[in-house]
Every structure is written in structure tokens, then in C-alpha cells.
Amino acid sequence: MKITTLLSPAMFDASISDIDRKIVVVIDILRATSTMTVAMENGARAIYPVRDIETASRAGTSFVKAGERNGEKVDGFDLGNSPREFLPDIVGNRDIVMTTTNGTRAISMSEHAQEILIASYRNIDATLNYLNNSKEDIVLFCSGWKDLVNVEDTLFAGELAYRLQENGYEIENDATHVAMAVFLQHQNNLNDIVKKASHAQRITRLASSEDIDLCLMRNTFHEALKVVEGVVVVAS
Ligand code: 3SL
């Protein structure tokens, strides 16, 4: 049972050779994987993450179309990528097609994985329980920002790695040590450091700092989320 961490999608090709034998945990704390968790908390039936705007645009009228590029809502879509938008009366019992700058890209890059999980602080304990029960090799895939490393995904990956290694997982690459070291240094002031991050400041400018608070809430959802045949559903 080994953990490999990708601090950004740019590490993917150099770090992963046998993805079909690993569980990939996709992490995009600000905001894609947090918003997906909110959507499922609020009763969405399923989320169809897609890489490009054109594919999302072609989804039928029964879908809620959600999309963001560079932090801003895609023109003509029903929703952007703010967790404040995914309210029960909008997403309850609905299928959502969703495309985002980095998060849905990381999901589609992981398509050949043995399994793909969608993780955020909002379902961190459920994700850890799922991983600890699976006893498989794990890739912690930080979506980052346009191939760059970001602090919020790194902190979250570090916390997962730290808690998994307490349960017998081995560390496979240095990026995992880096993420754990960053987490251990900041574990008592996680929210403060995330709020200083470049993307938190971008979101505060383009949307609202409330989004950051919603993305940092812990264990509001007690289910792991899994991508099955391209669709995000509750893991059973
Ligand atoms: O890149 C993404 O996937 C998004 O989470 C970015 S944003 O927070 O919606 O700007």
C-alpha cells in the first residue's frame, strides 16, 4: 500500500506508470471537488465531469449545466462553480454536467485509473475510511492551477497522506513528503494559510470569500464520492 502525490497535473506523466492499478484521489479544494461534494450533499443525482465547454454545452436540456473558466461562470450555463449556487432546489434530483479549468481536467486525465475518488474537506473522513478499507496503492492528485502547484490542494494531500501513513501506507515519492511537511507545519492554522493563497484571493475578487469558508468546512458529508463510468456518484 503506497502513496504517490502529484502536486500538479504537470507531474502526471513523469510520476505515474501503472494508473490502472491505483486509486486516484482527485483534489481541487478551491473549488471543483468541494463544489461537487456540496452538489451531492444537496441531493444531486449524479455529476458528469467533462473536460471542455463544447462537450458540456451539448448535454440535453434535462441537465443542469455548470461551468467555469478562469474562475468565472461560462456564458449561457445555468451555474458557475461556486458552492453557493448548488442549492437543493436547483440541483436536487438533477443530473449535472460540469466543466472547470483544473478539476475536471484532472478527473479526465485519471480516466484509466482502477478507481477515481473526488475528495474535499467536506468529505475528508469518509474518503479516508474508503481508502483505508480498500488497501490499494493510492495517487493523491492535486489539480493545482494551470499546471502550477497550489497551497490548498497540497495541504489537503498532506493531511490525507499523514493520516494514511498512520494506518500503514508507505510513502512512494518525495512530493508526498513535501505535502506532509507543509501540512504538519500549518495544521493548526490551515484556514489562515489557505486564505492567503493566490486562488483564494482570486475567488474573493471574482466571487466571494464565503466560497472559501464553504470549501474549508469539514465532514459536512459522510460519503466518499467515486467516478463510475465517467459519472460522480456516492461510493457504496
Ligand atoms: O479549476 C477548477 O477546477 C476550479 O475549481 C477553479 S475555480 O475555483 O472555479 O475558479
SSE layout:
Layout: E1 2-6, H1 12-15, E2 23-27, H2 32-41, E3 46-49, H3 53-57, E4 64-69, E5 72-73, H4 88-91, E6 95-99, H5 103-109, E7 115-119, H6 124-134, E8 138-142, H7 151-165, E9 170-171, H8 174-186, H9 190-196, H10 198-206, H11 209-216, E10 225-228, E11 231-234
Parallel strand pairs: 1-8, 1-9, 2-7, 2-8, 3-6, 4-6
Antiparallel strand pairs: 4-5, 7-10, 10-11
Helix pairs in contact: 7-8, 10-11
The protein binds (2R)-3-sulfolactic acid (3SL).
Task: Give an overview of the whole structure.
The chain has 236 residues and is α/β, with parallel strands linked by helices. It has one domain (2-230): ComB-like (putative 2-phosphosulfolactate phosphatase). 39% of the residues lie in helices and 20% in strands. The chain contains eleven helices and eleven strands. The strands form two sheets. A seven-stranded mixed sheet has the order 9-1-8-2-7-10-11, with helices on both faces. The protein has a four-stranded mixed sheet with strand order 3-6-4-5. α10 (198-206) crosses α11. The two termini are 21 Å apart. Bound molecules: (2R)-3-sulfolactic acid. Residues 28, 30-32, 68, 71, 81, 100-103, 143, 203 line the site of (2R)-3-sulfolactic acid.
Q: What is the CATH topology?
A: putative 2-phosphosulfolactate phosphatase
**Ligands:** (2R)-3-sulfolactic acid
DSSP summary: helix tally: 11
Within the largest sheet, what's the order of strands?
9-1-8-2-7-10-11
Overall shape: it is globular
What value does the average pLDDT take? 97
Structural class: alpha/beta
The number of distinct β-strands equals: 11
Number of individual domains: 1
Percent helix, as a range, is 25-40%
Could you give me the name of the CATH homologous superfamily? ComB-like
Low-confidence segments: none
State the distance separating the first and last CA atoms: 21 Å
User: Strand portion, in percent?
Assistant: 15-25%
| CATH class type | Alpha Beta
CATH architecture name: Alpha-Beta Complex
Q: Main sheet, how many strands, which sense, barrel?
A: 7 strands, mixed
Radius of gyration: 16 Å
Order of helices and strands: EHEHEHEEHEHEHEHEHHHHEE
